[in-house]
Amino acid sequence: MQKRILVLGGDGFCGWPTTLHLSAQGHELHIVDNFVRRRQDEELRVQSLTPIRSLSERIEAWRELSGQKIGLSTLDIARDYAELKTLIGEWRPDAIVHFAEQRSAPYSMKSSWHKRFTVDNNLNATHNVLCAIVENGLEEHTHLVHLGTMGVYGYKTSSFKLPEGYQRVRLLSPENNEESEDTEILYPPDPGSVYHMTKTQDQLFFYYYNKNDGLRITDLHQGIVWGTETAETLRDERLINRFDYDGDFGTVLNRFILQAAVGHPLTVHGTGGQTRAFIHIRDTVQCIRLAIDHPPAAGERVRVFNQTTETHRVRDLAHLIHELTGAELQFVDNPRNEHVENELQVENQGLQHLGLQPITLSAGLLAEVSEVAGKYQHRCLREKIPARSLWRARP
Amino acid sequence: MQKRILVLGGDGFCGWPTTLHLSAQGHELHIVDNFVRRRQDEELRVQSLTPIRSLSERIEAWRELSGQKIGLSTLDIARDYAELKTLIGEWRPDAIVHFAEQRSAPYSMKSSWHKRFTVDNNLNATHNVLCAIVENGLEEHTHLVHLGTMGVYGYKTSSFKLPEGYQRVRLLSPENNEESEDTEILYPPDPGSVYHMTKTQDQLFFYYYNKNDGLRITDLHQGIVWGTETAETLRDERLINRFDYDGDFGTVLNRFILQAAVGHPLTVHGTGGQTRAFIHIRDTVQCIRLAIDHPPAAGERVRVFNQTTETHRVRDLAHLIHELTGAELQFVDNPRNEHVENELQVENQGLQHLGLQPITLSAGLLAEVSEVAGKYQHRCLREKIPARSLWRARP
CA quadruple A114, A117, A120, A124: dihedral positive or negative? Predict the structure, then answer.
């Protein structure tokens, strides 16, 4: 069934390939973006390794190739509430995919300004979307799909798998250990940066608007994305996706691959003992399609999936890239304030039950990413590689 | 020991008597306020039942009576970050008492604009204060005392007492009920309005800034405040405190007392089966003094107290006022979306261990409030009494 889908942040690293994938499925797509991500490139004096085109050129290229139109509204959804409300009210989307948040942990910690920008932008953006759905009376019509993060759970080693959002607990009374009945709660949040904190606060927005207004919401707690191209972005170079390698927006595995391609040592923070959850960008777009195809029922609580396919220890990934490319490892002081080593087990069957066939780490896929990195290595600014954003100004 | 204390929102219902009480103790006080509460009176076309004076007249009257000066900065702390940072950096407060949030649940639900104002104001205000402390390097120096709400816990009937912030739980694995080790978490939040939601989100700000930056924070989950005068505000009529009776800002017990004084029926929402936690304004100011006198140690987690002295069922309060005054009860449709009836048991020994001697409901105190209500009843606008803010626009 064809759906009308609004993609907030549709010009970004996940938003653009998701828009193309959903358009390729025959849905009607409309992008909302304020191009803040491109302005952040200017601020940080760095560019995507890949030569991404303007959004209007991207959209025109896709129309040429596929015959599908993609709409566009240039709005700041954290500020331009009246315009957002009107757009949602007139367009009446079946689904809204919400990528329009500042998504980098290091960027969120660069300075007081960056902390405040991240909080102000992410919280007002999410809340404005919720208000606009309710004010338009679309509580039962419009399904909101939000990109969360695995980081809401934190990285304390747990003795069993992290659940998909909800945790069964037994409340213990302080005085006498008399036990109450069991209950199910949102997994106790433990954010590791201001960015992650905003995503734990988003969960409370969703909890409340689902409870009070009956909004239908899916929250996808995504792992660290790697890869760059999808089936749709590969169809024309004008459709090429972002590849971030800088210390703020680059994600760890893509950074290792780029570092290997340009002859830079693989920068491992601390001991590299951090275990994290990962997903390939091709699976990201599949997961979002599956979430849209399976909205929660009316009256259902917020649906939460862990959008991740595998976990790896950071130094194991570095060793793997070393074996494939010969690149040396460089252990550097960890700019973050986080557990030095952790284990991580994640429940992730929800999306697979809906049909996801996970793409896991393979030499073939790594080679494909390496090829992209190699092809555009002349665009790399080596001085932008180190991660310089400190979690604490004072030790 | 004399301390320098910044009171954010020092012109408000709790802020003003707290400022006077702390000044009377010999501390050095400085108020920050943007007078939004007075502008809300204009917006709602209602005034405090009591004839409150301008803040400058209040401050001058206090100086005359006590010889104590109170400083004043007119700032919007959710917006004027640079000025807030400079003030905190130059004044180096030992404690900051943070009342500067939109504090009415009905006001937060009046419209989409009011929801968005509450979120934008409360979350940016709290976050700006945290950032300003960190950016000034005052993490170990300045103790932040925040007014939370009992509403963060929600009003599901629990089989034992609500703890003071932290709940011991046993995580249960989904597959086989194999139990993990016990742990202590922030009590699972369950907000009942957009206003309450922002206070649950504040808890995550505090959790994170305590964890990452070592901030010393006390969060006081206050019950519903009643009463109006304190020992200090009684010293001169120019020092008189606010008395809100309107459907948005008036609190339930003060509203009943006012209704009885003006011959209006006591408006009970739903069955009046809601059990809530209460505190007298004289205890509010004592509790804040005690919190300031006992800051958390360096490295201690966020300290949470339940700032409440007793619980009552709403219809029991209505019956009590009926018995004292003869006023009739009027059961009206509940504009809120909340549990019809609930039980409530609250742990509240923390502040009593620090020295609080609770003032609980008594005929004498009720008579004192009645006297205030009677004295100023000519200022009451009867049409402002009903609570008209609906939790859901559509049933």
Answer: negative
Among the listed residues B115, B102, B38, the one whose alpha carbon sits nearest the alpha carbon of residue B390:
B115
Pair B224, B37: CB distance under 8 Å: no
| Alpha carbon A267 to chain centroid, angstroms | 22
* B395 contact A CB<8A: no
Please tell me the distance from the alpha carbon of residue A312 to that of residue A223, in angstroms, as a whole number: 11
Per DSSP, the three-state class of A170 is strand
Residues of B in contact with A181 (CB under 8 A): 159
Q: CB B182 to CB A163 under 8 A?
A: no
Residue A181 has pLDDT above 80, yes or no: no
Q: Strand pairing of A179-186 and A95-98?
A: unpaired
Q: What integer pLDDT is reported at residue A182 of this predicted model? A: 85
* The token pair that represents A88 in the structure block: 């949602």
Contact B134 A393 (CB under 8 A): yes
Residues 197-236 of A with CB under 8 A from B: 197, 200-201, 204-205, 207-208, 212-213
Q: Is B22 on the interface with A (CB under 8 A)?
A: no
Q: Does B112 touch chain A (CB under 8 A)?
A: yes
Q: B344-362 in b/e burial notation, b at 16+ Cβ within 10 A? A: bebbbebbeeeebebbebe
Give the N- to C-terminal CA distance of chain A in Å, as an integer: 56
- Does B116 contact chain A (CB < 8 Å)? yes
What digits encode the pLDDT tens for the residues B324-348?
A: 999 999 999 999 999 999 999 999 9
Q: What is the Cα–Cα distance from A12 to A98, expressed in whole angstroms?
A: 11
Long-range contacts of B178-181 (CB under 8 A, 24+ apart): B178/A160, B179/A170, B180/A158, B180/A159, B180/A160, B181/A159
Looking at residue B356, the DSSP 8-state letter turns out to be -
Shortest Cα–Cα distance, A348 to chain B (Å):
13
Chain B CB within 8 Å of residue A386 CB? no
Q: Residues A8, A98: contact at Cβ < 8 Å?
A: yes
- Give residue A179's pLDDT band: very low, low, confident or very high (50, 70, 90): low
Across the interface, whether the CB atoms of B337 and A212 are under 8 A apart is answered: yes
Mean pLDDT of all residues in A168-188: 81
- Helices and strands in chain A: count of H runs, count of E runs: 12, 14
Tell me if B172 and A185 make a contact (CB, 8 A cut-off): no
Judge: A208–B194 Cβ closer than 8 Å, yes or no: yes
Q: Report the candidate in B323, B298, B302 with the shortest Cα–Cα distance to residue B203.
A: B302
Q: Which helix (H) or strand (E) covers residue B82, if one does?
A: helix B81-91
B180 CA to chain A: closest CA distance, Å?
6
